Amino acid sequence: MAHVEEKMTVERWPSHPETASLEGKNKFVGFWIFLGGETALFASLFATYLALKDQVPSQDHLTAQQLFHLPLAFVMTMLLLTSSLTSVYAMYHMKNYDFKKMITWIIVTILLGLCFLGLEIYEFVEYVHQGHTFRSSAFGSAFYFLVGTHGLHVLIGLGWAVLLVIRNMGRGLSVYNAAKFNTFSLYWHFIDVVWVFIFTVVYLLGVLG
């Protein structure tokens, strides 16, 4: 009987559980409104960085070409892009009513995000040791403000994912928490897209001049 009941539950699971409830629809709309504000925030940070990236106090000060290490930035990019893929897998299993696999892929996403954040902290420490700090130049201030703001968003996303997993581990899937997991996934994709722009504008163009 238990097997039949589970099968009926799966059959009744909506094809789009994230928007199957009114709350889910509101979360979806609210996220895109929030995303508009976040886009404006990062657009202003990118504009500030581009305006100040050549503002260094003297020729002896480290420039982007001397400072940045593309291999490290590339590894960080691959980690974050892979985490975006694993979050897609998580949402795929959510839509197929497979709670365990969804949680597994979210945990993998968290681990990849932690690796990214660890490398970013390592990168910042190395730059500080080389004299590139928030107060060393306008270039330094713009760099840390842009990349640091993104890092803060990654940290918030990781905390969000951990809380979702802990809070819902014993609850299973419902249209109520499906909307929450989907909103997190959309947020995580946004973070990844922002990082692609950071990698291109800050690191790639910085090294290539």
Question: If you had to describe this structure to a student in words, what would you say it looks like?
Answer:
By secondary structure, the protein is mainly α. Helices cover 80% and strands 0% of the residues. The protein is built from 7 helices and no strands. Helix 2 runs parallel beside helix 7.
Average of pLDDT: 88
Question: In terms of per-residue confidence, which ranges show pLDDT below 50 for 5 or more consecutive residues?
Answer: 1-8
Structural classification: mainly alpha
Between the first and last Cα atoms, what is the distance in angstroms?
67 Å
What is the radius of gyration? 20 Å
Number of helices: 7
Overall shape: it is elongated
Described by strand count, sense and barrel closure, the largest sheet is: none
Protein name: Probable quinol oxidase subunit 3
Transmembrane segments: 29-52, 72-91, 103-122, 142-166, 186-206
Catalytic activity: 2 a quinol + O2 = 2 a quinone + 2 H2O
InterPro entries: Cyt_c/ubiquinol_Oxase_su3, Cyt_c_oxidase-like_su3, Cyt_c_oxidase_su3-like_sf, Cyt_c_oxidase_su3_a-hlx
TL;DR of this structure?
It comes from Macrococcus carouselicus. The protein has 209 residues and is mainly alpha-helical.
